[in-house]
């Protein structure tokens, strides 16, 4: 696995980061453009809270973990200046999207806007020591905890009491966010939160019979035989398992590492497309038709998160199966998502056959986040366990 | 074109209608199952207001227009009994979906639930002469008119005042609904409504420069350079043009027929996939990446509605270009959507290459509506202008 260290590090520092540094900065109004075509040209100037928060995080993380380059700190700050000024409504909840100049376009109906804002400001305050930014991260985090049992509030379309389901995404993200904000939280808060989200993910959403995690379950964790209840998102499961492994390492819990890895393997096998390779986006756990028309597409984040999970699994357990899966995923991902022609950021959306379906590097949901984070996580993980190269 | 009359009529009466009559009826709780797999097996028992209303309409229309079979009237009644009992909230607005036994699952956030309920009860009251059903249709129609400037009400996520767009779907459906409810409305109401929706469709949403109709425009009809503003749904345009042609015939307005047909040709040419044939689901008017991941799929309703538009265009104008397009669409549609193996209803969702992507005959959005309506419309239209067959 050692050979991948340089490959991932070079791609991050020579292709991905320069692409975003060159093309995404709105030096005029602040914030980041994320709607960038294959060559990095801006095709839309709207700004999306998820992607603003995530890019603030990415550049702060690079400054903190890779190299203390002033340029990277300034880029993180550019997004933060926009979001401090325009991001929140009068309750402190984060709008979903904005015009170029920061007028709100879409109301704060989506709690993940808040999660990624907390993530971004949490990382930024680590490198700029700003109390204001620490307050933004912490107050946002507290609002997420307040809102988490009713995250959509008045925008909830479900009729109360008929089929109340809870969704896997929020506990999954809280696994990661709780560690990212560790420097801002007191130990007892974080310990009890971690225990709670571990319980949610590994006992409530996890289904022992299939070995998989469902996207939506009844409040008691039981199965709902409905479109929402049957849907499996293999990429979500696989990504969550590296968050869980990070928590397991922190808790020094080998059993938890092994369990997370076992679930990740099950999800990889369940999601793998034996006909055209790659990981399918959605499948029905009972094999029924799904409601997501894009079910058979291959998405960038699914594949790069799987690379991280296998790299971490390998680093912690030395299980050879991780290396085998890593290589298989690496071959597919680098061949199909990477843009050999234009370089820079990778494509995000492939059809089932692995052909580019949306010829863009970013948009409403894809920005400067999964690929740089994954490239960093892979090389950093492998570096930590690397043997001196055998010549 | 005469040869298509028997082909379309046979398919309707020997394949499509028997499929729904056999597989979709919930004789236990009332209403219709629409989640039916390739062989007609029920894979989910939830019920969806759009599809309940539409199937009530289809069977009432068959009774009214094709043959006064008691079975068809009973089937229309089966859906109506469910919807009368469970369909509405205390304001008379229609829930979006229900459990098998009629408990509401999703709130009345979607005004098209109301449109299709009005359509269904409007057709049923024509054949059962029920004042109650006429009242349901009429009061629903009046609520739609009341709600139409703010159709999503409290579920609206757009921030007011930043980029207020209006959507093409509602005026488009009102074109059709106003004619379908003509027997319930007084002449001055319907005449002024028709003039209003014609203005909306042909002057506000229609863009002279491209010759296309946009899905979303500013309130003054001007272009919004955003994901929502740039998106073109060729199938929507083509379907709307047969609604417009029906209105034009009613108004005896030849110029309007020609204009509608010209727009339909432009949309067909814009939407046609020169690489793999068929009509693409979404395209950006400026050629930018779209946000809809399913943009390159081929959908059943798009193709059968295009067949209706070309059949009507041919019948009214005898323009040979309609016949050429009809044959091209017929060949693609029958080859790819029709299920030669199992028979019955056709498939709904193909990938760009024309392969079945969702192996189901119905689901949350596809029921007993577009295919039977289109088959009926095509053969009935061609019958009306048919020359005696040349032997």
TrEMBL record, chains A, B:
Keywords: Isomerase. GO terms for molecular function: isomerase activity. Gene3D superfamilies: 1.50.10.10. CDD domains: AGE (cd00249). Transmembrane segments: none annotated. The keyword Isomerase applies. One of its GO terms (biological process) is carbohydrate metabolic process. InterPro entries: 6-hairpin_glycosidase_sf, 6hp_glycosidase-like_sf, AGE/CE, AGE_dom. Belongs to the N-acylglucosamine 2-epimerase family. This is AGE family epimerase/isomerase. It comes from Pedobacter chitinilyticus.
């Amino acid at each position: 696995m050692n050979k991948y260290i340089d490959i991932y590090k070079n791609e991050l520092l020579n292709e991905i980061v320069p692409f975003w540094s060159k093309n995404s900065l709105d030096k005029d109004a602040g914030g980041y453009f994320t709607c960038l075509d294959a060559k990095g040209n801006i095709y839309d100037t709207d700004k999306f809270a998820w992607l603003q928060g995530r890019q603030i995080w990415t550049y702060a993380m690079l400054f903190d973990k890779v190299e203390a380059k002033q340029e990277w700190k300034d880029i993180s700050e550019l997004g933060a200046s926009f979001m401090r000024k325009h991001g929140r409504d009068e309750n402190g909840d984060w709008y979903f999207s904005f015009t170029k100049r920061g007028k709100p376009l879409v109301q704060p109906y989506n709690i993940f806007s808040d999660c990624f804002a907390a993530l971004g400001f949490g990382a930024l305050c680590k490198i700029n020591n700003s109390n204001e930014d620490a307050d933004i991260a912490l107050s946002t985090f507290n609002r997420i905890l307040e809102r988490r049992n009713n995250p959509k509030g008045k925008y909830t379309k479900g009729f109360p009491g008929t089929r109340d389901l809870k969704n896997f995404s929020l506990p999954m993200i809280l696994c990661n966010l709780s560690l990212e904000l560790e420097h801002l939280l007191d130990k007892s808060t974080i310990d009890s939160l971690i225990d709670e989200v571990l319980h949610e993910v590994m006992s409530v959403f996890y289904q022992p019979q299939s070995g998989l995690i469902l996207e939506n379950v009844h409040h008691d964790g039981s199965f709902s035989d409905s479109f929402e209840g049957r849907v499996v998102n293999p990429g979500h499961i696989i990504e969550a398992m590296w968050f869980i492994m990070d928590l397991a390492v922190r808790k020094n819990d080998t059993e938890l590492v092994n369990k997370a890895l076992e679930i990740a393997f099950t999800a990889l096998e369940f999601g793998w497309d034996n006909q055209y390779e790659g990981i399918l986006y959605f499948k029905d756990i009972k094999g029924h038709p799904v409601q997501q028309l894009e079910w058979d597409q291959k998405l960038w984040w699914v594949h790069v998160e799987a690379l991280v999970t296998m790299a971490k699994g390998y680093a912690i357990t030395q299980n050879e199966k991780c290396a085998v899966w890593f290589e298989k995923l690496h071959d597919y991902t680098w061949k199909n998502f990477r843009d050999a022609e234009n370089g820079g950021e990778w494509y995000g959306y492939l059809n089932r056959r692995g052909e580019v379906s949306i010829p863009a590097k970013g948009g409403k949901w894809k920005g400067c986040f999964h690929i740089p984070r994954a490239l960093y996580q892979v090389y950093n993980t492998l570096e930590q366990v690397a043997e001196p190269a055998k010549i």
